[in-house]
Design brief:
- Helices cover 30% and strands 17% of the residues.
- The protein has 11 helices and 14 strands.
- Helix 1 packs parallel to helix 2 and helix 3 packs parallel to helix 6.
- It binds flavin mononucleotide.
- The site of flavin mononucleotide (FMN) has 20 residues, from strand 4 and helix 10.
- The site of flavin mononucleotide has 20 residues, from strand 4 and helix 10.
């Protein structure tokens, strides 16, 4: 039987030639001001044979900043930098969505080119540390709780960022509602201790994420909007006590928007829940799965578990021509963790492609 990864797929208004997706990955090669660099155009264009590229997490505002040298989409220079990247990817025949990011409490003000409050659903500081170029590893900053009225503004920051991404030529945007960042913090039971209409019951905890999705869909259209979730992923010290009910409500509500896709990342260190199967039962649109899958797993997920496409992270760091390698069944290069987030070309644009 033909490999399911190579069947074409319609995603929103796009036709993908295959179901192999570049997972969103922070690589910290932008400037300190969050402006994309030409080397990033090379990195993304080198991966244009993927069915779809999802960019690294990209800040929607100064308040949304987390990690050093990560790009934004909220200043004219950043937008122009991304325009160059999209042009390079399209010229190479690819399709690209931007992942829109607000880190919430996972932040250090020292990484920000302009000062802004560190915010979260509640004033609950994240354990652990973050790398800063100025002073090395530092504890996360103490966040302030967003005021009820702030939440509309955060949703409109997402919407403005989505408009700017589409204006820069992107094929769509992916809203980052995973991995312990702001939207996931609202879903959680340990960072969201609010007593207003955004906290407490499940209905209230999914309200902020749904308002963000509504704002983005209104700004650029559901067919250009994807959402990424990671049910049960404890990364960044997230606790969710009622995963099945919480995500049952969230995914069912997301289903009503008619999104381009739902991107489900499974927890990396425990596989007690299978979020792909869970989401498949509740989401009628296209489903992208991610989370340490091999090409063989991926084929099975599509053929048997109802995923429509599979995103690869580390395999894509080390194999720009992953599509061709899977097609030929040849060995994959192994990604070097030491250069995941370091500046410059090493470990970024120097992994060898196959010699044809
Ligand atoms: C270096 C690195 C950076 C990442 N950055 C992001 C990110 O910006 N946004 C996101 O949603 N996930 C991010 N992830 C998670 C990946 O998208 C992916 O889901 C995860 O690595 C599991 O897939 P894999 O085992 O195929 O790498 C990152 C992963 C790695 C290795």
């Amino acid at each position: 039987m033909a490999n399911a990864l190579f069947a074409p797929l319609r995603l929103g208004s796009m036709a993908l030639p295959n179901r192999i997706v570049v997972a969103p990955m922070t690589r910290s090669r932008a400037t300190a001001a969050g402006v994309p660099q030409p080397i990033m155009a090379q990195y993304y264009a080198d991966r244009a044979s993927a069915g779809l590229i999802v960019t690294e997490a990209t800040q929607i505002s100064y308040e949304g900043w987390g990690y050093p040298r990560t790009p934004g989409i909220h200043t004219p220079d950043q937008i122009e930098g991304w325009r160059m990247i999209v042009k390079a990817v399209h010229a190479a025949g690819g399709r690209i969505f931007m992942q829109l990011f607000h880190g919430g409490r996972i932040a250090s003000r020292l990484n920000r080119p302009m000062d802004a409050d560190v915010v979260a659903p509640s004033a609950v500081k994240a354990p652990g540390q973050m790398w800063t170029d100025a002073k090395g590893a530092l504890d996360h900053d103490e966040p302030r709780a967003l005021e009820t009225e702030d939440i509309k503004r955060v949703a409109s920051d997402f919407a403005q960022a989505a408009k700017s991404a589409i204006g820069a030529g992107f094929d769509g945007v992916e809203i980052h509602s995973a991995n312990g960042y702001l939207m996931h913090q609202f879903l959680s039971s340990n960072v969201n201790l609010r007593t207003d209409r955004y906290g407490g019951s499940i209905e209230n905890r999914i309200r902020m994420p749904l308002e963000v999705v509504q704002a983005v869909v209104s700004a650029v259209g559901a067919g250009k909007t994807g959402v990424r979730i990671s049910p049960g992923h404890k990364f960044n010290d997230i606790e969710e006590h009622d995963i099945a009910k919480l995500y049952g409500a969230y995914i069912s509500a997301l289903d009503k928007f008619g999104l381009a896709y739902l991107h489900v990342m499974r927890p990396l260190h425990e596989h007690a829940i299978d979020p792909v199967t869970m989401a498949r039962g509740m989401f009628s649109g296209s489903l992208i799965a991610a989370g340490n899958y091999t090409p063989a797993d991926a084929e099975k997920l599509i053929a048997e578990a109802g995923a429509d496409a599979v995103a690869f992270g580390k395999a894509y760091i080390a194999n720009p021509d992953l599509v061709e390698r899977i097609k030929r069944g040849v060995a994959l290069n192994i990604a070097d963790e030491a250069t995941f987030y370091t500046p410059g070309p090493e470990g970024y644009v120097d992994y060898p492609a196959l010699v044809s």
